[in-house]
Amino acid sequence: MDSLSSTSYYTPYAAAWLATVALFLLARRLRRSQNLNPPPGPKPWPIIGNLNLIGTLPHRSIHDLSQQYGEIMQLKFGSFNVVVGSSVEMAKVFLKTMDVNFACRPKTAAGKYTTYNYSDITWSPYGAYWRQARKMCLMELFSVKRLESYEYIRVEETNSLVKSIFESAGEEIPLKDLLSTVSLNVISRMVLGKRYLDEESNSVVSPDEFKKMLDELFLLNGVFNIGDSIPWIDFMDLQGYVKRMKTVSKKFDRFLEHVLDEHNERRKAAGEKFEAKDMVDLLLQLADDPNLDVKLERHGVKAFTQDLLAGGTESSAVTVEWAIAELLKKPEIFQKAIEELDRVIGKDKWVSEKDMPNLPYIEAIAKETMRLHPVAPMLVPRRARENCKVAGYDITEGTRVLVSVWSIGRDPKLWEKPEEFYPERFIGKEIDVKGHDFELLPFGAGRRMCPGYSLGLKVIESTLANLLHGFYWKLPKTMSENDLNMEEIFGLSTPKKIPLLTVAQPRLPVEMYRF
Ligand code: HEM
């Protein structure tokens, strides 16, 4: 009784006290924001901020704005500050000097609904769970030894790509479809232990359906979902994206449950003699490890597996499709590539991964493609963990940070005739794509840099080299170089808007295509 009466006695005082504290904090925040010196940027509208300035290709809208406001600018997306760095100097600050402050990701609907509530690698916040995930990538999943041990898979799958192109010689080929089949097969065999998605195998999802699921996942992870910027209208799901996220994530879950069950059954049956042969085996073993700093739960294993499948499939196929499209516009580059391949490899051999250091022109084509068509034109968004100053400007905690590698790749101060596809610009230059040279960052840099970059690079370079070695490439008869549409669509990756149709003719002796 006593306690009840004392509670009611104190309630008005507590409410008044709370209101005073809230007012004090609000006033302090206001005072502080008035004293801040934010990066330059367009004046935001109430509620929407600057969202009215962002078109269907956000990287292009943001590039145009940065031409006006400079190498560091601040936009407002709904109620969130978004800072964009679009020069080598700014990329260095965000991804190197102050990387630790920007190594977090914003909370987005995509992270919540498509990756088991941020349990994957890409969307998990900076902290012990994410650090452990990166350690697993470095030590286990993408170690040099592990990648080498899977080389035979990459060779077999490239051979089967070459064979299927050979069988369609002279016909119009939708190249990206074939390329994503190869990368899906490579990654599926490395991660899941087999081509789960063979037409014949009894998979719960058909290969076509799975590719559609991956496209949808990539798109939804990159779209500008209004609810992420204006949280109080999130529940309305005005663009219908959240509904689509929930649908695609249900489909993935059904598939991943099936994969994990099969792997666990095999593990149980093998008992003590069990040996991990693919990445899911490794992840399940890690999930059983009592010494892990942070427990890896079943949904974590599913989220990591999905990240590996998605990261490994789409990006390399998109890049190789862009490379061939650029070459079809400039046939003289084909000629130079062929000269190098004939001289270094010869017509009686296919290109192996070990040959790549001897093929500087092919490497240059790959780099030039990634300069003009980076898969993630503004990387994956980061989030400021604390207030800080960059270039004399104040960046407040929670600000979303984009690094426009798309703008850096087109910066006339760095590249002569930046819009021109000109692989020669890399010949004799020590610029690599591994996060050291900030003028070319297709995989990002720093703590959040792509953990799969060496696998991605191997797949891109050797697929491209063998496609150029094995075939002459032409546009369909009804098309000229000027008809070739080079527009892109925006998502987490940036593929060609209109998939490339092309015609291949074998270039090597017929017996070379019998595997
Ligand atoms: C052409 C190939 C690839 C390209 C261009 C690419 C590009 C990128 C980029 C730009 C990022 C964001 C980096 C940042 O925020 O600074 C990233 C992150 C990531 N990539 Fe890749 N990637 C490729 C291949 C792969 C492969 C093969 C895998 C795995 C099998 C993979 C898995 C990931 C993961 C898990 C992250 C998130 C890392 C984190 O947030 O800590 N990627 N990738």
From TrEMBL:
Alphabetized UniProt keyword annotations: Heme, Iron, Membrane, Metal-binding, Monooxygenase, Oxidoreductase, Transmembrane, Transmembrane helix
UniProt keyword Membrane, yes or no: yes
GO MF terms, alphabetically ordered: heme binding; iron ion binding; monooxygenase activity; oxidoreductase activity, acting on paired donors, with incorporation or reduction of molecular oxygen
Pfam families per record: p450
InterPro entries assigned to the protein according to its UniProt record, in alphabetical order: Cyt_P450 (IPR001128), Cyt_P450_CS (IPR017972), Cyt_P450_E_grp-I (IPR002401), Cyt_P450_sf (IPR036396)
Ligand binding (heme): C450
Family: Belongs to the cytochrome P450 family.
Name by which UniProt lists this protein: Uncharacterized protein
Annotated source species: Lactuca sativa (Garden lettuce)
